[in-house]
Amino acid sequence: MPIKEKFTILIIVNSQQIVILNFIRMRLFKFPLVIFSVLLLACNNKPTSDKAIHSAGKQDSEHVKTQAEASSDLTKYGIANYQNNVLGGLHVGDKAPDFKLQNQDGNEESLEAALKEGPVLLVFLRADWCSYCVRHLKEFQDNIQEIHEAGQAKVIAISPQESSYMKKFHEENQFSFPILFDIDHVAMKDYKVFFRVTEKYNDYIKESKGQRVEVYNDDTNAYLPVPATYLIDQNKVIKYVHYDPDYKKRSDLKEVMAQLKD
User: Which of 57, 78, 85, 224 could crosslink 201 through cysteines, CB 3.0-4.6 Å?
Assistant: First the structure.
């Protein structure tokens, strides 16, 4: 009787091709006879289409900023490592979330109502004690006529600072646009600019400005927004975004004007 031994080997090629080798060794009349049988299965290894590559690249690029932000040390900007932070910002092409908030005079304003008159230039304001914020808003005020003429746009600022502070700040600087009070942080979270302040930075604000952040905001804890700028068209589509955790870096008015004229 011949002796028959059978071995099965699986080899995976390019993660999609499977080759099954059946090695059968037979001994007959003391002369070895070797038979190899190779069967190729699943050889349909199609290359990835250009369209699929483009789609994957687009998805990757949309998350680069968020991933970089998550891996960087944001505490140097006063941003605490807080699990309920909502950061990353919205992107060009996203739908802008609606909001209904009270302005410095206690009157309710909404994005939906403002968009009926034209595009909205939405600016997130940290507080009246922030010199960078003050200069940023004053730049918009100094060019408010050009902004309006460029695209019939309306400027709206949103801040977590309590309305009594904002009312005085608004009057002193003679702003012609409203400053809305985001009392429950809804807008800051919807626009992904919401964060809790580090204790170190909060202590610095108290020492240099007179009060802790939560006192200025009439809040239980210290929360601030990334001072982002969004240009929103009348279809609620975001056409321009400036988002940077570094509060010293602000939107460029020339870029905003170019988008309004486009």
Answer: 78
